[in-house]
Structure formats: structure tokens, C-alpha cells
């Protein structure tokens, strides 16, 4: 997928939507700990992105509960994406390095929006190319759509000659160690921004 002007508009639209939700009352509630100022969009308390039930590249079913005690970074993409997804995963590697020892408490999760081509062996090899601790999750086409919709994540198959590519949004979602969706990170933000917000979430009780 080439990150075209159209993609940028979609990312900005998703960002604007998250911001509007936050301004409408999705910011931190008084009964939740306030640990600092996020670099990303604070979407604490939004009514979406509550959980998922998907299969990892080791054929094990996964939900958010499996990662309690860790910050989860969730990203929707696909293996044949030529630029945006590799950039996001490379940044995730750098983010983990910046966290030092706390990097062990970060779980990066890549959800494929192209289950037709992204088989478990392909996903495993793709994750191993960046960091063996990263997990890729998948499901069938219908459940993929339902999962993406539950996170307000956009994707669409785009024909390219005899094949196709996938147009998709590029936000990364951060969950605190209790499994609550807290922050939406923009694609153009730096690894330092990501590490900053993850460090804050790791201080959440």
C-alpha cells in the first residue's frame, strides 16, 4: 500500500473522529488514575475497542485478557503493505528499545486485514523479521471486518491489475495493563512519542 494523499485524508479523518469522541466526554473519568499528559490522543473511556477474539500465528486463540499486566500496542495492517506497515513495525521495535527493561512489558499485536493471503506461517515469518515477541492475529473475512469495525479501523480491498492491495487506516491503539483502551497514536508520531505514552501507561495501577 502506498501512503497516498487519500490515505493521509483517511488517517486524518480517523484522528479527527477519535478527538471528537474525546472532547465529547471520552477523556479520563474521575474514577480512573491520571498518570500524565499523553503525546497521542487520549481516548480513555470511549465505547469501542473493548476486546477481540482472534487467532495468533501459532494457532492459539487470543483475547486482551491474555496480556494483563502489559501495555498492548494494537495495529491493523497486512504483510504485502510496502511502506506504512513496515514503518509502523520498525517504529515499534525502536519504541521497545527506548523503553529499556520496561520493553518486556510491551506486547505488540499486528491484526491482518488481508486474511486471504496472510496465512499463519507468513504472519509468523513477518513478525520474526521485526521482533519474535510481536504477535500477528487473524481470523476469517467476516470476523476481520467485525473486529476492525469494533475499533473503528478502516480498510478496503483495492484491485491492482490481476491482484489487489489493501487501503487501511494507520492508527496504533494503546491499552493499559488492565486492558483498557487509552490512547490512539498517529502514524506520523515518533518512537519517542510512543515510548513516552507507553511509559505513562505502565505506571497505571
From TrEMBL:
Signal sequence residues: 1-24
Gene3D superfamilies to which the protein is assigned, alphabetical: Glutaredoxin
Disulfide links within the chain: 81-85
Xref: PROSITE patterns: PROKAR_LIPOPROTEIN, THIOREDOXIN_2
Thioredoxin domain ranges (all copies): 43-203
GO molecular function per UniProt: metal ion binding
Name by which UniProt lists this protein: Electron transport protein SCO1/SenC family protein
Organism whose genome encodes this protein: Rhodoferax antarcticus ANT.BR
UniProt lineage: Bacteria, Pseudomonadati, Pseudomonadota, Betaproteobacteria, Burkholderiales
